[in-house]
Amino acid sequence: MGTRGRPRNAHPEPAASLDASRAGRGRAERRRSAQRAKRRRQRSLVREVPLVIVVALVITLLLQTFLVQVFSIPSGSMQNTIAIGDRVAVDKLSPWLGWTPQRGDIVVFNDPSDWLKNDPVPTSGPVLGAVKSTFTFLGLLPSDRDLIKRVIGLPGDTVACCGSDGRITVNGHEIDEPYLYAGNPPSRIPFKVTVPAGELWVMGDHRDISADSRYHMTEPGGGFVPEKDVVGRAVAIVWPVSRWQTLPSGQQSVRQVSSAAPLSPVPAELPIVMGVVAAAPGVRRARRTRRA
């Protein structure tokens, strides 16, 4: 043998076989690389999902705290304007910008003087209580301490029932209330009050079943709602889909009959969609940053 381990007359391995071998090794390496890349993507997705959830919750918290909060409506006191089970978007930004409630505005407010004391509140453990609080904040469950009514009297107004035509009067002028539940009079309870400074007089649209300011006149607070307890103005019904609609501001809701004093102008609220659009670029930038 001239070459150790191989006969003299052995021919070298053909070039085609070498090429095929290299190609096979290349395909195997590409498969392994693809599998490694797939595993990296899966691990990245597992890490990214919790981050996305946290970011979504933070954005929701900011939106609900400073811009818009959704409330679930558990009663029929605002029928037929707002139905039982509707979810209503409430503008929380405008109060930060100096907005104050106007006559005819539908507002959500904190229970001012234990108005809900006779409503049973089911007890729950700490875990269930935390879940319930979260669902309430997100508008999936009704709140145990917030109410929704329509503003009828502003600070300094004298509100009475009823005028010669059976209508509510504000400062001696009858007001037209087209939103009243069919068949309901403006009020079956006669009253006359002067709204103190910093307070509001509120009533439901379904007057016969609404335990509003009229029903709390003899209680501490006199049935008035402090302006500081107002969470914001209800601007739209957002659920169910079949009920999608905006809710008119006070200037559009309460029409005064002839000779009535003019209503104060209502500043326009920032549309809900602007808050969502403003938040969206931040989400997209965060996603691009994570991918970079």
Automatic annotation (TrEMBL):
The chain crosses the membrane at residues 49-71. NCBIfam families: sigpep_I_bact (TIGR02227). It catalyses: Cleavage of hydrophobic, N-terminal signal or leader sequences from secreted and periplasmic proteins. Its EC number is 3.4.21.89. The keyword Cell inner membrane does not apply. This is Signal peptidase I. One of its GO terms (cellular component) is plasma membrane. It is a single-pass type II membrane protein. It is found in: Cell membrane; Membrane. Pfam families: Peptidase_S26. GO terms for biological process: signal peptide processing. The keyword Hydrolase applies. Residues 24-40 have a biased composition (Basic residues). Keywords: Hydrolase, Membrane, Protease, Transmembrane, Transmembrane helix. Residues 48-239 form the Peptidase S26 domain.
